[in-house]
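Entry type: protein chain
Record version: 2
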Amino acid sequence: MSRTPTRAFHGERSNAYLSWAAIAVVAIVGTGAALEGRVHELLFAVTVVTVALVPAIELGTTRAALPWEVTTVAVVPLVAAVIAPDLPTRQLLLYAGAATIALALTLELHGLTEVRLERWVAVAAVTMLSASIAATWAMVTWAQDLVAGTDVLESNAELMRLLIAASVAGLVAGVCFDRYYRKFPGEELVSAPVDGIEEQVFAVEADLDDHPSLEERLPVSGRVTRLAILTLRLGIAAMLAYGLVAFDTGAITNAAAMLAVSFLPTLLRRRYGLPFDGGLVLWITVVVFLHAVGSVYVYERSFWWHNLTHPLSATLVAGTGYVVIRTLDEHRDEVHLPLELVPGVVAVFVLSFGVFWDIGEFALDAVAAGTGLEMPLSQYGLHDTITDLLFNTLGGVVVALWGLPYLTDLTDAVTDRVEDWRVFDG
């Protein structure tokens, strides 16, 4: 049997020796970082060691280790950071190194679970994991700065450079790994048989058929729900009218986009028969209404409005991510996610989407600064960006843990429609 990256979990003695030697170097450097108060080096080392311990703990033997190539590459940014001349360079090296940790996590999912990922999905997974790891480090560092009164993260521009480095490195790592894996003809990037783990691939059906809809959970009648939806839409239309009268391009762009989104569920229900119940439509309309209010007036005057709208907006992203994940699982033979992993994948989807969104806002700010044009989206500093990430994560976790059953009927209808359209044929 040829050796592939996931087959390293078989317990090859030479692989284990080399891999654990690399992890020992990480642990030593991390200990020195803890003693000297170097936050980013410590976070990197703790993350690497934690990820490396997973296969050994899961399979109950130190012979089960990550591929030595991956752990060795993970040492490089940490050692480079130690000898780097200044803090910004050290941080950039470590955040780019998040890609190696994302790659290790992807390999562990393949080696220890029934996960099956098509190659392009695996590349996307490494990219999203890298962005999510970097965002998590940034939130922890920011919290440490608040508590200790330090300035490890000095500015929003610095944070965005770190998030961009992690995201780009994640994409590069995913693509390079895909190219590397092509050296093993006939081998797919799927779960390899591991000692103690049976090789079986199966779909687990969620027992959610009898779960009440969101509309049934609401303490008001369907008529009141429809009236509330109409009122909120009229409110968004009024904000659009204000923007037109005041020649406020930001208000016009945001209100028009939010009004269109509020009607999207109705359009999809009428055009494709998708079961958007009144509760789902109200949920979407409330979210876009609050965002429109913020864009027209509140965002520039009150920081707490962001903290309200971002977790709510993240619930929409989480719902979209869940539909995409279920659809891929249903219609691509090369893609399978065990049910128990879906909440975690949804949370990563939301967190990484927040990173990519903030990168987009940062780019628009750069365009605005260079051209003098007013952009519909902008950032308001380090605190704003970090709290956006924090509350995005909160919204994603809420949906991942408690909201998925309310999306089951809609998701089933979408997968049926996709089958009718033969989107994935061939």
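Comment: The chain has a mean pLDDT of 84.
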